[in-house]
Amino acid sequence: MATKKMTRRSFLKHSATATGVLVGSGPLLLLPRKGQAAADKGPIVFCTYGGPYGENMQKHVIDPFVKKTNIQVIRTSTPNFAKVKAMVDIGNVEWDVVDSETRLFYRGAEAGMFTPLDWKVIGHKDELVPGGVEPMGAANVFYCGVLCWNKTKVKGAAAPKSWADSFKLPGKRTFRNEAWGTMEVALMADGVPKDKLYPLNVERALKKLSTVKKDIIFWKKTKMALDLFTSGEVDFGYLGYGPTRKAIDAGVPLDFTWNQAILNRDYLVIPKGSKQVESAMKFIAHCMDPEIQAQYSMHYHIGPSNTKAFDYIPKERSDQLPTAPEHLDMAMQTDGKYWAQNQADLAKQFDRWMIS
Hints:
This protein is an alpha/beta fold. It is 41% helix and 17% strand. The longest helix has 19 residues, at 51-69.
C-alpha cells in the first residue's frame, strides 16, 4: 500500500498541534476550541510576538509554566488592536492572554476591552518597575531605543553623550519613520527634560528635526536601521537596543549611550470574554515571577519588569539590560496613554512634515 505523502501544510498543522505553537507566514490562524476542556482548565492561547522574542518566550517562560501547572499554552502571533477589539465586540474571544505594547494597552483599557486583573493572585505588585502595575495590565518586559553611532565615523571625544550633542554633529543620521519616539528625541535634543516631555510640543519637535532634515535617512524596519549602521551609510542615530547589542557582540564597530534611552514596555492583558480567566491569571502571575523573568532576560536583550529579577542575574549581564537601576534612571519612559489618545493626530502632523 502506498504511503500517503505529508504536505508542508499538514506537517505545520500537526507540529503546531503537538507543540502548542502556531506557525506560518500567512493569515493568522487559531486552533479551534471545539472539544476543549472546561472553562478555566486550559488550554490558554497566548498572543505574543514571533521570531527570537517568541522563541525565547516559549523556552524560558511558557514551557516552565506548562511543566509546573500542567496547563497547556498555545502560542500565536501577532498582537493587534483591531483583532482583539473584533473578538471582544462579537463575543468570540480566541486569545486568553495578549502581549500588549503600551499604545495597544491604553487604547484597549479605555475601550473596556480587558478583564481587570486580580493582583492578589498575580502578586509581585510591589516589586515591579514604576508604571508596571495597572488595573487591567501587568508590565512584562521593557525594551528601548538608544543613541547609537558607528565608531569608524564618530571617534573618541566626538562621541555624543546626549541627543542634543548628536544634533550638533555633522553627518548622516537615522530615525524612525514615524512620530512615535522621533518627536521625543527631537524635544530632548532641543533641551526639554526627559520628565517634562508630555504633552508633546509638536511644533517645537518638528522645527528641531527640520534643522537636520537633509541629513536624515528614515527607517521603517529594524533590519533597515541596522543595515544603515553596519554599511556605514549613517554615522549615528536611533537604533533599538537589542539589535545594537547583537551587532556589537558580533564585532560590528558600534557604540551607544544609555543616556536618554527611549524606554517602552509591554503589558500582559486578558481580553474581556476569555473563558480561561483563572488559568490566564495564573499564567500572568508566572510571568511576573522574578526567577522566570531573570531566565528570559539572561537569553534575550530585554529588561525584566520585576526589579527582584536582578537578584538572579549576574552583574555582567545586568549591565546589558535597560531596566538595571543605573540605566533606568538615565532613560525616559514613553507615555503610552498619551500616545493612545493622540497618535492619529500626531501621525498626520508628522506625515505632513515629511513631505513638506
